[in-house]
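[Structure tokenization] protein backbone as discrete codes
[Encoding] learned vocabulary of local backbone shapes
[Protein] chain in single-letter code, fold in tokens
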Amino acid sequence: MHAIQMTEHGGPDVMKWTELPTPIPTKGEVLVRLEAAGVNFIDVYYRTGAYPSEIPAVPGLEGAGVVEAIGPEVTTLHPGDRVAWSDRVGVGASGGGSYATHVIVSEARAVPVPAEVALPVAAAAMLQGMTAHFLSHTTFPIGRGYSCLVHAAAGGVGLLLGQMAKKRGARVIGTASTDEKAALAKKAGADDVILYTRTDFASETRRLTGGRGVDVVYDSVGKTTFEKSLDALCPRGMMVLFGQSSGRVDPFDPQLLNRKGSLFLTRPSLYHHVRTRDELLARAGDVLASINSGALDVRIGATFPLSRAADAHRALEGRATTGKVVLVP
């Protein structure tokens, strides 16, 4: 098989197109022929060493494809089945990176893909779709009468989160850097979009809410938005920090949360929101069913050949993409 492999941490160029032995599935595993792999900002964290990882390694945390072979004691999957997976869930064992033509996937992590859903779309929806799902349904169950601020509203999670929050009846305010991205966020259901490159998003959020602030901020940016995100909240509002694309948040005195209105702060992850096979099938199944019915639109903003994973990372880090970035063999 072929794969993207990195033997050191660093910039995009540490990822090399390499020929490796095709793995053989063992107990509870299946071998999947990749149709598409999702690219996520967390892949950048692992590549640079911001998140610890062993090397050499094949990057990639999600994908979709067709089962080619099954290992012993696999009972629910068969060769020819269409499946998608994410390595960020808390069930099953991780079999290796998804930036490869063939991937070992734990049966416990493999989710059946409806025939009507294209496999690249399924790959694009796994990690970011389930993230948007737990943020809007569990971390802060958004609904009618609530308002939210979604940072990076034209990004992969942002577009899905905006759609889910709107369908649940909430008022959605998004942030974006350009008019093009603002238009995408509006199309996905945002009631208002703040161009943070031109306007202070905290003061504009308060203006849009009549001075009250929003009930919840969904923030994947981190360092550069954190304190102003707190300023955008209403008293007893919740700050949901689920990423750090601009860097780690600086240490602060928790008394700050009191001064700004007895605020709540949480730092959730998908891993802790999918702890069982049943929970995985329910959450992923809800996302895929919504895509199948047309209730949820997954935007694939850029597609790169698998061999050009470094270019995909450059585009992602350079904020040159909207929606989801995928790699195809």
Summary: Residues 119-139 form the longest helix (21 residues). The chain has two domains: 2-125+271-328, 143-267. The mean pLDDT is 95.
